[in-house]
Amino acid sequence: MCFRCEWLDTTKADYVAYHDTQWGVPLFDDNALFEFLTLESAQAGLSWYTVLKKRDNYRNAFANFDPTVVAQFDEAKALALMEDKGIIRNRLKINAAINNAQCFLAIQKEFGSFANYQWQFVNNKPIVNNINSKADYQATTAESQAFAKDLKKRGFKFLGPTTVYAHMQACGMVNDHHNQCFRKDEVIALYSSLF
């Protein structure tokens, strides 16, 4: 039996699949990055697993996380989303997703891609953290604070330093797998082919 990160509830097969195949893997696809930003902002105040269970519903509700479509959602669409029991029906978070799509597009236009913008906050290379116990995990870092501050300046909502750090973990900007987790070295091996 292989060792996995201690925070993972291994009784939940979908959670294990997410950990084993996605969490911490460097992402450069803008739609995937927009998906994680949207899901992380929806998670604020809730557990990640609560959002993960609703991920497919979010894909349906938010046009497969196409920011060009979401950016055009109007008041009627926002009201319809409030009736969608498959997502978190919080009006502020729904409005934030629409607003963030608009801001996301502005960054794409300025930087060529959101990935170009995002990865600059870690000097375009993942940070590998030394995780030996749950106590070694950080809620925020200087990088997540700088990233969140810049997102806020650019008009993004529901993306403070803690939420942004979770996004950075999910998207592989940081490798926060436990040192004994079988994914730690697998993800590091991915870096060598990407960076």
Automatic annotation (TrEMBL):
Keywords per UniProt: Glycosidase, Hydrolase
Q: Name one GO molecular function term.
A: DNA-3-methyladenine glycosylase activity
By its UniProt entry, which Pfam families does this protein fall under? Answer: Adenine_glyco (PF03352)
Q: What is its EC number?
A: 3.2.2.20
| Hydrolase recorded as keyword | yes
Q: Tell me what this protein is called.
A: DNA-3-methyladenine glycosylase I
Q: From what organism does this protein derive? A: Pseudoalteromonas spongiae
